[in-house]
Design brief:
It is built from 9 helices and 12 strands. The chain is of the alpha+beta class and 326 residues long. The radius of gyration is 20 Å and the shape is globular. It binds S-adenosylmethionine.
Length: 326
């Protein structure tokens, strides 16, 4: 094996090792990222009733390890990286995306805890003049480069590993996409170079890193839509999130990235008050059944759904709704 291949293999395998995923030939649930609340006082949170394993035709997927009832909380997830949208920048917490009552001129944190958790990446970010990068992204209507910018600051500050997204499936990129990404990379790099951020802290920031990260973010990021209240009822929370047009930011999570898509999903993801995601069952699910979410608006017609899934995620959906022409 060539040394280049060795390196690639090492990079690919290390996140698995770190998360202790390999277990009984299955990809073990990332249990320390996720829990189920335990109703019994003084007891440890339960591990989620799921495991990640290979599907027949859609790569890895998430499967139920026991029966799950309609409405059950399957697990929660904290993001690996998140960022508010440009339009929410001044009215949500810069760390947890919680909506704030006042709109300020600068970024805000909702609590000292969030300020503290953001301390590392923000100490890098606030030393940089981002205007050229931000202006480019705003004009082009780009949202994902904001996540790359935040991840770059997290890595530079030591708050995240440069390889933390490597385990996720990357999007297939066209030459045109790569050329655009190269432009963004040059802008990001020049913003960071014009500061006192040390060269050693920036060593990870190569064109390959930028493109690799963006390729993963493209198909694994979630639009965070806050329900805006304490909706325990599944239907009400879904309605509230659509009604409020409540998209406040984008985020990438570890375990939620392994759920495949179905136009008639059996689980969904909700955000109650901040970026932490809750995955809930939409119907009863049997042990061994694959859990699937819907990546898009399921109310669209079949043609629209197929087009969005192909252009955005690079696959042709063959779920039962699509097969039966619904
Ligand atoms: C967020 S990832 C889901 C996890 C992925 N299967 C893996 O192995 O990491 C999304 C990718 O999974 C595959 N996928 C998800 N749902 C699919 C479906 N209904 N039909 C075909 N491929 C699907 C596509 O390659 C898609 O780009």
């Amino acid at each position: 094996m060539s040394s280049a291949m060795c390196l690639r293999l090492r990079r690919w395998v290390s996140p698995f090792k770190k998360l202790q995923l390999h277990h009984n030939n299955l990809l073990h649930p990332f249990s320390y990222y996720t829990t189920i609340e335990n109703n019994k006082p003084n007891q440890q949170p339960l591990p989620p009733p799921i495991q990640v394993s290979l599907t027949e035709s859609t790569g890895r997927g998430v499967f139920a390890t026991r029966r799950i009832g309609v409405g059950d909380l399957i697990h929660t997830a904290k993001p690996l990286v998140s960022h508010p949208t440009y339009s929410s920048l001044h009215n949500v917490c810069y760390f947890c995306l919680k909506k704030l009552s006042n709109k300020a001129q600068t970024i805000q944190f909702c609590s000292n805890e969030c300020r503290e958790q953001a301390k590392d990446f923000y100490s890098v970010e606030e030393r940089v003049d981002w205007s050229a990068y931000d202006e480019y992204c705003r004009k082009q209507g780009l949202k994902y480069p904001l996540l790359v910018k935040r991840l770059a600051c997290m890595v530079a500050s030591g708050a995240a590993s440069a390889e933390c997204l490597d385990i996720l499936q990357p999007a297939r990129l066209s030459t045109e996409m790569i050329l655009k990404m190269e432009n963004e990379f040059s802008l990001l790099k020049s913003c960071l170079m014009n500061t006192d951020v040390k060269d050693e802290e920036m060593a990870f920031l190569t064109k390959q890193w930028y493109i690799g990260v963006l390729a993963r973010i493209r198909i694994n990021s979630f639009r965070v839509e806050l329900a805006g209240g304490l909706y325990e009822d599944l239907f009400l929370s879904a309605v509230a999130s659509v009604d409020a047009e409540a998209s406040v930011g984008n985020a990438v999570y570890m375990l939620p990235s392994f759920y495949n898509h179905d136009c008639d999903p059996n689980i969904h993801i909700v955000w109650i008050e901040n970026v932490n995601a809750r995955l809930k069952a939409l119907r009863d699910i049997e042990q061994g059944e694959e859990l699937r979410i819907c990546y898009i608006d399921a109310s669209l017609d079949q043609n629209a759904r197929q087009t969005i899934l192909f252009e955005g995620f690079g696959f042709r959906c063959s779920c039962s709704r699509c097969v039966y022409g619904d």
